[in-house]
Amino acid sequence: MHPRFLEIEITGRCPYQCKHCYGSFPKPGELTLQNIGDILNDAREFFDCIILSGGEPFLHTGLTDMVEKASREFVVFITTSGFGIAAQHIAQIENRAVLVFGLDGIGRTHDAYRGFPGAFNHLIKALEMTRGMPKEIIVTLWRGVISQIDDIIGLAEKYNAIVHFNGLIPVGRVKDNPEIMPDITELEAVYAKLYRLKMNTGNVITNLHKVTAQDCSQGIELFCRGRFNITPEGNVRPCEFHCTVLGNIHTHSLRAILNQASQTPGIRCRENGFKGHVRTDLKNPFDYHTSICHKVFSQQ
Fold it and tell me: How far is Cα 143 from Cα 170, in angstroms, rounded to an integer?
């Protein structure tokens, strides 16, 4: 059974200007503790895991209260750049949440990519502070980070973190920074490398998927199956990389939105791995998101 994730973007505030940012943060909007309570009440039968994200969630003054409330019934993850984490946060969320840190390179590579001098130092400080906590590192595979994969794995091992390597999805701010997109030759090479690492290294996980002929007949084994997203404005979407809006929690309950969404062609098709919609003649076989998923939803 796939774990079912609900990602809640609790705030649009963020100090960074990451070149790949799917949501083009910073942007307006923030959810209240009351909003989160209502969401969690409706989420029980639909989800197993809650992801609290942003923007930068540690800039929300209510984050620790949200973690305390959500951790009573769900596995809780917090996705963060490491910016804004303080000792009092750690004391309040320890043993209640898994921290997921975004890393885009080593040292100045990370800083330049995030558009914020000192971003890497903020991240390292946060990793030091959270040595005793369960944590993950997510790396988005942009062109400049590929040569640093081995160094990143070493850093993850140093801080006892699982490291995920995810494909770069061409949405949001990527459109303004096309030079960061790896070409097919680069993706083929990194795909082979990551497969070897995944098989032989205990802390490496990759969601870089290459569409195959088997996917055409059986559907894609999607990591996003059962996943939904809520923006700081309250819009409910199939995932954080989607512009499709299924409803808004300020006008309808999450339960009503999800029940209605489950009957739509797009969601039903996604839950079936887009079986019948998968092709092997894609321009980029590593990008089923915009070439298959987004097209399915645009046609409904």
Answer: 13
Nearest-angstrom CA–CA distance, 220 and 209:
9
Which class for 174: exposed (0-12), middle (13-18), buried (19 or more C-beta within 10 A)? Answer: buried
Q: Looking at the predicted structure, is the pLDDT value of residue 240 above 60?
A: yes
Evaluate whether 62 touches 31 at the Cβ level (below 8 Å): no
d(CA 220, CA 214): 8
Residues listed for the chain: 300
Q: Vertex 179, ends 175 and 185: CA angle to 5°? A: 115
DSSP state letter for 157:
H
Residue 300 has pLDDT above 80, yes or no: no
pLDDT in tens, 207-221: 899 999 999 999 999
Candidates 233, 273, 228; CA nearest to 246 is 228
Under the phi-then-psi rule, with left for phi > 0, alpha for psi from -120 to 50, and beta for the rest, what region is 24? left
Would you give the distance in Å from CA 157 to the centre of its chain? 21
Write out the two tokens for 246. Answer: 């299924």
Q: Which H or E run contains 185?
A: helix 184-200
pLDDT higher than 60, residue 1: no
SS3 content of the chain, % helix, strand, coil (to 5): 40, 15, 45
Phi-psi category of residue 164: left, alpha or beta, with phi > 0 → left and psi -120 to 50 → alpha: beta
Tell me how far apart the alpha carbons of residues 5 and 277 are, in angstroms, rounded to a whole number.
24
- Which regions of the chain does DSSP assign to beta strands (E)? 5-9, 49-53, 75-80, 98-102, 135-141, 162-167, 204-206, 228-230, 235-237, 247-248
Which residues are CB-neighbours of 300 under 8 A, at least 6 positions away?
264, 265, 266
Distance between CA atoms of residues 160 and 114, nearest Å: 24
